Each structure stands twice: as structure tokens, then as C-alpha cells.
């Protein structure tokens, strides 16, 4: 039986990768990537020749069956996502679930920890984060109000991922539903245009309204 490695990769800066991650990517028989083009940037940077295949949100049950068969045949496989830690708001968790369902205790699923946008923003927040809640992405349409309303009942920070296309609209909604909250917003963390914006909901909303060129990139938000 092969082993399945769940392996964290950088969220931007290619140097944010562990020695163990590079060693594992070199040694496994196959790397499953959310997007092979994305992962190939890392593989070519570190001269890793390992074969890649895609595994993503829309992968078919047949694809999962194929992966299970490869593990049964003894292949060691690493699963990576586009950025960060597989399984945190991306399809990694689904594969682990399917593999566990099939093999139960027979298979070794080995974490190779690395960065995550979630832990990265927490680390610079300056907030008491012994307790917080992570909510993934807000729903696109239905359930959006409910998503933000639930935060009213938390007396600890709530963290979520945001798309630049929905940032302004959703901040307007936060202003309406949670006007007293403050924000720590991380954008493009570890990348060239990295910024951490701190302030009241109103201040952060105004900042992005006045700097439309910054309404882009990858965003993670803490409401507290
Ligand atoms: N598994 C990843 C992790 O561990 O961070 C998250 C995957 S999720 C599909 C991608 C979202 O994470 C982005 O849309 C953005 O909200 C957030 N994200 C990823 N990289 C980021 C970065 N460099 N700066 C800020 N947010 C980031």
C-alpha cells in the first residue's frame, strides 16, 4: 500500500516551503495538483521532475477510484493545492475522506505542514487568538446575510476568505450588519504587493473605495 502525503505549499512567496516538502515532492511517484500549471512553478523552481496529475473540485468519482487504485498498487502520492494547506477551503479534504472510507486504518495519510493564509493572517493580527472561528468563503448569493449575521453571536474573532470581486459589496453588508466590528485584512500575503489593512469596518471600506486599484488579489479577513 502506498502512502498519501498532504503537503503544504507557499501562498505566494516560493521560498515559503519546507525542506521536508521539497524532499517529499522529489521522492513521491506522483503529485496530485489542484492546477498542474500552478504547481509546476514550484516544481521548476526547485527542479523537481516528479510526474503530476490534476485533482480538483470537479474531479470525477472515476478519478478518485483511479487514485485509490494507484495507492493500492503501492504508489506514494503527494496531494497539493494551488496555494497553502490542502483541505483548508479547498478540495484536499474530499480526497482524504474518500481514501479513509476505502482503506480505513490500512493507509498512512501523512501531513507535511506548510503555510496557510489563515494561520498567516492570525500570526500578524495582534489579537487574542487562543479562540477564533474560521468560516471559509461567504456564500455568493443565497445565505450571505445569514453568513454575516451568525458572526454577531461570536465573542471571538471570525476569519474568512474573500474574493476581490465581492470585497466592496460584502464590506457594505458587514457595515450594515456588524457596524461595531473592526477588521484586520490581509491582501496578497507573502507576495510583492502584500498589505495588512487594519481599522473599523467603515475605515477599511473607505480605504478600498478610494484605492480601487487595490481591490484585487487574494484576501483574508478577520472581523473582531
Ligand atoms: N488552502 C489554502 C490555504 O491554506 O490558505 C486556501 C485555499 S482557498 C481556495 C484560496 C483563498 O485563500 C483565496 O481566495 C484567498 O481568500 C486566501 N488566500 C490564499 N492565498 C492568500 C494570500 N497570499 N493572501 C491572502 N489571502 C490568501
Automatic annotation (TrEMBL):
Domain Tetrapyrrole methylase: 3-204
Cellular localisation: Cytoplasm
Entry annotated with the keyword Transferase: yes
Annotated InterPro entries: 4pyrrol_Mease (IPR000878), 4pyrrol_Methylase_sf (IPR035996), 4pyrrole_Mease_sub1 (IPR014777), 4pyrrole_Mease_sub2 (IPR014776), rRNA_ssu_MeTfrase_I (IPR008189), SAM_MeTrfase_RsmI_CS (IPR018063)
Keywords of this entry: Cytoplasm, Methyltransferase, rRNA processing, S-adenosyl-L-methionine, Transferase
Catalytic activity field: cytidine(1402) in 16S rRNA + S-adenosyl-L-methionine = 2'-O-methylcytidine(1402) in 16S rRNA + S-adenosyl-L-homocysteine + H(+)
Keyword S-adenosyl-L-methionine (UniProt): yes
Main location: cytoplasm
Pfam families assigned: TP_methylase (PF00590)
Enzyme class: transferase
GO molecular function, one term: rRNA (cytosine-2'-O-)-methyltransferase activity
PROSITE patterns the UniProt entry points to: RSMI (PS01296)
Catalytic activity, EC: 2.1.1.198
GO CC aspect terms: cytoplasm
Function: Catalyzes the 2'-O-methylation of the ribose of cytidine 1402 (C1402) in 16S rRNA.
Family the entry assigns: Belongs to the methyltransferase superfamily. RsmI family.
Protein name: Ribosomal RNA small subunit methyltransferase I
Organism encoding this protein: Candidatus Falkowbacteria bacterium RIFOXYA2_FULL_38_12
Gene that produces this protein: rsmI
Amino acid at each position: 500500500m502506498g502512502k498519501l502525503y498532504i503537503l503544504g505549499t507557499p501562498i505566494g512567496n516560493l521560498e515559503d516551503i519546507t525542506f521536508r516538502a521539497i524532499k517529499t515532492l522529489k521522492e513521491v511517484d506522483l503529485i496530485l495538483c489542484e492546477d498542474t500549471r500552478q504547481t509546476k512553478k514550484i516544481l521548476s523552481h526547485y527542479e523537481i521532475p516528479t510526474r503530476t496529475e490534476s485533482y480538483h473540485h470537479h474531479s470525477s468519482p472515476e478519478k478518485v477510484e483511479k487514485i485509490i487504485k494507484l495507492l493500492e498498487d503501492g504508489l506514494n502520492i503527494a496531494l497539493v493545492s494551488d496555494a497553502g494547506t490542502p483541505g483548508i477551503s479547498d478540495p484536499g479534504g474530499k480526497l482524504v475522506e474518500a481514501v479513509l472510507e476505502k482503506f480505513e486504518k490500512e493507509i498512512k495519510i501523512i501531513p507535511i505542514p506548510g503555510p496557510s493564509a489563515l494561520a498567516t493572517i492570525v500570526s500578524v493580527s495582534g489579537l487574542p487568538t487562543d479562540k477564533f472561528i474560521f468560516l471559509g468563503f461567504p456564500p455568493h448569493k443565497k445565505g450571505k446575510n445569514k453568513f454575516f449575521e451568525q458572526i454577531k453571536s461570536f465573542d471571538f474573532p471570525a476569519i474568512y476568505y474573500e474574493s476581490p470581486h465581492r470585497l466592496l459589496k460584502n464590506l457594505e453588508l458587514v457595515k450594515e450588519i456588524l457596524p461595531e466590528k473592526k477588521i484586520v485584512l490581509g491582501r496578497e500575503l507573502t507576495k510583492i504587493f502584500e498589505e495588512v489593512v487594519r481599522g473599523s469596518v467603515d475605515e477599511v471600506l473607505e480605504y478600498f473605495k478610494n484605492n480601487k486599484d487595490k481591490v484585487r488579489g487574494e484576501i483574508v479577513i478577520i472581523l473582531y
